[in-house]
């Protein structure tokens, strides 16, 4: 089946789909070139010391090391994602090295696969819609996601949408099934809506036998995909780990413990606590929040319009719009977490808006306004990037990664205080991979509601054997040093130095 394209129209006030005005092949090269340029422009904030010594990307490298040491995710340590990225990561890091550079390279390649999917979807669209995608690219992809999972999931979902637009429901469902083993949340939502469309499609067949025969025939690619991915996962990690990973219970517990949600912790993103109307205006104009909110509202409008038309025409493009809108609003009200959660499915949202502009044939003026809003929403990011180039630098004291001088100095201070004693770094990240003489928790990510009982027991043993513990200063509820499970072990230590970023605890 050939890819659908919009029929030419004569109204000059709406977007035409005349072949000479389509984005075509150059769009792919423009997306990839711009992606590479943005990566290089933001290098200090991508290849950054704090990203790997303190935050989630470093924890992803730590997870790979734990698996190499024989620990099993969801059994030996809490893990909220699918197991397929861990297996892909093991192969990739074995090839390029378990390093921050390897992680950044993985991000770049996974995001390139995501952009390829967007191009497959957009190459027959009007050039003005393509320009909108280019302007919104820094909103569509984030240079360094918090885990290997997120760009892989986004790429799979976009490629599934391509098949859905083509009317290939079986292929779309198969890709969604593969996504279950990457991150089992949105894949369930996406798969549910595709299944609903399949049921509606087979109900039009003339007799009962033909309906069931057609339905199971369409399910076959997804079943094969699920059996292959499941078999690989079971062979590598076992039945229990595979079953645990397919049920996102660990992530749900963590969300509850953190008070995550669109109207809870995540509210900081779309309704921050600011003091004046001028501050709100600047916030919505010069950060991604304003553009994201406008796109969400537009997606609701496009979804409603598509539903009205779909009831009459049953076109594949309209079906796809309905699925995108349903998935986005399920994310909003079901599993939006903290203020940075908007990045997880921003590619789905913005691609949905672009598809809506194509399907509904909006006026060019609307796209021009969206392009301007997308560009203004980059202001805060580029200000941070400019500051990073100005004030950050690379040095051996930050393991060759970009860092501000005060953070480098504090790490040097903590290591000097430890002397010849091994540091037990009780935090997330992978400082143990960056510096010699540092031990780390046998844990993927230290957060309330994330650990297994065995995980706590191993960390307590590590604390009992530690002479120096270094922690990262953050809110008490997130600082693992304050976890109730380690109360007895804390009594053996005294705080000997407290900096802006780090605190040193030494055994009495």
Compact overview of the structure:
This protein has 508 residues and is mainly alpha-helical. It has helices at 26-41, 43-46, 49-53, 56-68, 84-96, 100-122, 127-135, 137-140, 149-165, 169-180, 186-202, 208-237, 239-246, 249-258, 267-270, 277-286, 288-313, 316-335, 346-360, 364-376, 379-391, 405-418, 431-434, 453-465, 487-490; strands at residues 393-394, 402-403, 423-425, 438-439, 468-472, 493-498, 502-507. The protein has 2 domains: 23-385, no CATH class; 404-507, no CATH class.
Give a verbal description of the structure.
It is a single chain. The chain has helices at residues 26-41, 43-46, 49-53, 56-68, 84-96, 100-122, 127-135, 137-140, 149-165, 169-180, 186-202, 208-237, 239-246, 249-258, 267-270, 277-286, 288-313, 316-335, 346-360, 364-376, 379-391, 405-418, 431-434, 453-465, 487-490, and strands at residues 393-394, 402-403, 423-425, 438-439, 468-472, 493-498, 502-507. It is mainly alpha-helical and 508 residues long. β1 (393-394) and β2 (402-403) form a beta hairpin. The chain is globular, with a radius of gyration of 24 Å. 44% of the residues are buried. Residues 1-12 and 16-20 have low confidence and may be disordered.
């Amino acid at each position: 089946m050939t890819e659908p394209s919009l029929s030419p129209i004569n109204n000059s006030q709406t977007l035409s789909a005349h072949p000479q005005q389509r984005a075509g092949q150059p769009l792919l090269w423009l997306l990839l070139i711009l992606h590479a340029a943005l990566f290089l422009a933001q290098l200090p904030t991508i290849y950054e010391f704090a990203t790997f010594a303190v935050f989630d990307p470093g924890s992803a490298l730590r997870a790979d090391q734990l698996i190499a040491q024989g620990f099993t995710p969801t059994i030996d340590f809490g893990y909220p994602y699918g197991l397929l990225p861990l297996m892909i990561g093991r192969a990739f890091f074995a090839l390029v090295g378990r390093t921050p550079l390897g992680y950044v390279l993985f991000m770049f390649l996974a995001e390139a696969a995501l952009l390829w999917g967007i191009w497959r979807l957009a190459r027959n669209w009007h050039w003005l819609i393509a320009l909108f995608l280019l302007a919104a690219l820094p909103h569509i992809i984030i240079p360094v996601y918090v885990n290997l999972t997120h760009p892989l999931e986004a790429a799979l979902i976009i490629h599934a949408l391509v098949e859905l637009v083509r009317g290939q429901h079986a292929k779309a469902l198969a890709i969604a099934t593969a996504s279950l083993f990457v991150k089992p949340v949105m894949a369930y939502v996406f798969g549910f809506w595709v299944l609903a469309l399949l049921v509606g499609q087979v109900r039009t067949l003339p007799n009962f036998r033909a309906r069931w025969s057609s339905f199971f025939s369409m399910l076959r690619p997804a079943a094969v995909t699920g059996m292959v991915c499941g078999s690989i996962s079971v062979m590598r990690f076992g039945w229990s780990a595979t079953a645990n990973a397919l049920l996102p219970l660990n992530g749900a517990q963590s969300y509850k413990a953190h008070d995550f949600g669109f109207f809870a912790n995540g509210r900081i993103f779309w309704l921050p606590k600011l003091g004046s109307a001028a501050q709100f205006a600047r916030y919505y104009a010069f950060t991604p929040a304003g553009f994201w909110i406008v796109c969400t509202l537009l997606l609701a409008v496009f979804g409603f319009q598509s539903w009205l038309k779909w009831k009459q025409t049953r076109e594949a493009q309209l079906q796809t719009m309905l699925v995108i809108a349903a998935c986005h609003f399920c994310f909003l009200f079901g599993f939006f977490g903290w203020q940075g959660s908007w990045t997880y499915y921003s590619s789905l949202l913005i691609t949905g808006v672009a598809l809506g502009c194509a399907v509904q044939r909006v006026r060019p003026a609307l796209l021009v306004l969206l392009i301007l809003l997308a560009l203004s929403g980059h202001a805060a990011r580029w200000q941070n990037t400019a500051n990073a180039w100005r004030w950050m630098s690379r040095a051996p004291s930050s393991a060759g990664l970009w860092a501000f001088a005060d953070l480098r100095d504090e790490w040097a201070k903590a290591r000097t205080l430890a002397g010849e004693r091994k540091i037990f770094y009780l935090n997330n990240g992978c400082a143990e991979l960056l510096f010699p003489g540092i031990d780390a928790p046998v844990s993927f990510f230290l957060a309330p509601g994330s650990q297994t009982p065995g995980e706590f027991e191993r960390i307590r043993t590590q604390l009992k054997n530690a002479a120096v513990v270094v922690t990262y200063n953050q809110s008490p509820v997130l600082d693992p040093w304050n976890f109730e499970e380690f109360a007895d072990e804390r009594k053996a230590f005294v705080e000997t130095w407290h900096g802006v970023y780090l605190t040193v605890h030494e055994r009495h």
